[in-house]
Structure formats: C-alpha cells, structure tokens
Amino acid sequence: MVDGHQPNQPFVLFLFSDTGGGHRTAAEAIDRALRRQPDGTRVRTDVVDAFAACGVFPLREGIKSYGALLKVQPSPYPALYHLSNGRTRARLVTELGKPFIRGNFRQLVERLDPSLVVSVHPLLNELARDSIDATGTRAKLITVITDLVTIHHAWTSGSVADEYVVPSAEAVRVCTSRGIPADRVHNLGLPIRDGFSPPSDRPEAKRAAGLDPSRRTLLVMAGGEGGGRMRGILRQIAGSVRALKLQLVAICGRNDTLRARLEELAPRFGSGAQVMGFVDNVADYMRAADVLLSKAGPGTIMEAAACGLPIIVCDYISGQEAGNLGYVEARGAGVVALEARDVSATLRRMFGADQSVLQEYRRSALESARPHAADDIAAFLMSMLPTPVVARATAPTS
Ligand code: UDP
C-alpha cells in the first residue's frame, strides 16, 4: 500500500473488492491506463481491497463468502441480490455494514489523503462519501459502474458520487432514471486490461498459448469464481464437442472443485482438453480461441468482444447479469443458449460448413468492443484532478 506521498502530488485511491473477478480487473486496468496518460507517471495510485484491508468481523467474512455463495447450486446469492435491490433497501444494507468498516476506512482515507477516490464496487460508494466528508479531504468521488445493464441500487444509492462512469447507453438510462443528472453520467465503456485484441494470426496465437494450432478451439469460462452451472452444461455437450473435434480449454477461476470435476470429465471431450484454475493470461486464451462459452460476466463479455471472439452465453448470475443476455444479443456479439441442447445446436452452427456464420459473429463482436475504455476513463480521471495539483505536478522542474 502506498503511503506518505509528496504534498501536492496527485494521488488516486482505487477501491474494489474481490467479489468475482471483474472489480479487481477493472481497477487494475484503469490504474495501468493512468500511467499511459501524459504526465500519468507523476500520479501516485493505490488499489485497495477495502473490505479486506479495513473490514472487521462479520462484514469482512460476509463479503468473503460471495464466492462460496455462487459455487453452491442452487445459489442463495440471487435472493440476497433481489432482497437488497431497492432504493431504500440498498441504503439500509450499506448502513448495516458501516459499523464494521467505517473507523478503519476513515483512517485509511485520512492517512492517504487522496486527490481522487475511484470506487469500482457497489458497496463502497456511500462509505467513501462518508469518509471523504468526515475527514474534510477535498477528494472527488468517482464511481465506475462495472455492470453493463442491470445496475443494483447500491451503485447509485444516494447519488453520492460526484461523477458516474458507466459502460453502456443502457446504464446511462438506468442512472438518469434514478435521478442522477445526465451531466454527471459518462458513458466511457467497461475498463478491460491490456492485451485483449484480435489476433493477426490465430494459429500462431494458439501455438503461443500452448494449444494445437490446427484445431478449432472452444474456450470455457465461468468468471473469477468459477461459479454457476458450467459443469452440468459441459457434461451434456461433451458429445458435440467430441463430434466437432473441438479442442476444449476450460478456465475454472478460483473454483478448485469445478477444476477437479472437469479434469475428471476431460476424456469425454476428446483429445487435448485442458482444464485450468485461475490464470493471469486470459487474453492469450481469448486471442487463440474460436468461440467462448461462458456465463454472462461483464468483464468477460467485453474482453471477448475486444478480441473479436464470439460468445455463447450459457449461464448468468440472476439479477446482476440478467441484462447482459440482451446486451450480447442486441449487438450480435454472440448467442444466448441457456439449455445444453441449445449450446450444442449453436456449436454445430458456428463450427458448421458455412464459415460466414462465425465470421459474422466475429465482426459484430469487434464492432461492439470498447477496447480503449480504460484509457478513456484514465483521461477522464486526469481531467478531474484538482487543477492546482496537476499544474504543480506537471510544472517544469528547472
Ligand atoms: N479472470 C482471470 N483469470 C481467471 C478467470 C477470470 O483473470 O482465471 C478474469 C476475467 O478475465 C475477467 C474477470 O476475471 O476480467 C471476471 O469478470 P466478470 O465481470 O466476467 O465476472 P465476475 O467474476 O466478476 O463475476
């Protein structure tokens, strides 16, 4: 954790929580993009998992249980989501959590004295606002919403952020319909990390990822937690994968049980199936793959789009990812197939004799991509730094 930065040195504090994989990757993507900005290297940053760093029992443990809640089937998480999703209910939930984090969090803000606070998590906005106000720091609060369409009320509760960065036109509509003035809502895209781009030579990308360059490849993902119904679906589509002679690569994220079970299933997918846990080089696999089979995680959807990789959405987290199904279909970036038989039919169509089918999905996926979102958000953040601070920081030294 960065501490003791120079007075007048711009300092951006990113707040996230490791619930799923998307919040961390969004924060890290913007953080890296800030360094690419003119004078960005002069900006100090810190990316803090706020609940892990400042929370105490039982809040910290409650937040940690997110992954476990998604891994059991049927998952109790959607019920929690829906029960807390209302203007007043979201506020209530945030208020209930505050006593178990507020003190440590205020101390953090006081100590770091940021110029900007950037929250990429729905449950951290009100807390950040409280702490900024209580400590008297002049930091602006920016909320970067990392859900594409279905926006939980906790994101917008109290309209506490000075500015809202959102990933889609749909998200703009949700925010303004909740009373946030349109000039405080900025549609800059969902920030994704570097490296997600279409391969110039797919066989070469396959080779680089350790795959057979001559085989058509189906990449399977289930978010950072590896939650959902993926195992059941894969079991049912194994025959189609084998019949189409696809090379299957499954990334299970932080779900060791899923990984172990898919390893057992691997021989059913034909030769060369690979099953992995959490990997840091998702981009390498997306650039190598021909089709992605995934749950409807927003980060995964936008990363695949940036690679021109068509997605078959076979699962989603009820509530927060529901709108992402329509998002993918409306843009032609892939297909929603929630039943195994529809997944199999889609695979047969995409990998059929008519290659124009896959090409058309690839083109639409790329068209829907916003690969520069992290840079655009970073530029926006630079513009939000207090002018005297930026001016002093960028003044010639001699
Ligand atoms: N991810 C990763 N390694 C893995 C699995 C996932 O880096 O082994 C990343 C993935 O590339 C994406 C994020 O985790 O950036 C998942 O975010 P998404 O919004 O799709 O779903 P979430 O996990 O937040 O539900």
If you compute it from the alpha carbons, what radius of gyration comes out, rounded to the nearest whole angstrom? 22 Å
Q: How many individual domains?
A: 2
Compute the number of helices: 20
Report, as a whole number of angstroms, the end-to-end distance: 31 Å
CATH homologous superfamily of the largest domain, by name?
Answer: Glycogen Phosphorylase B
Category from helices, strands and their pairing: alpha/beta
How much strand?
5-15%
Going by CATH, the architecture of the largest domain would be 3-Layer(aba) Sandwich
State the major sheet: 6 strands, parallel
Unreliable segments of 5+ consecutive residues: 392-398
CATH class of the largest domain: Alpha Beta
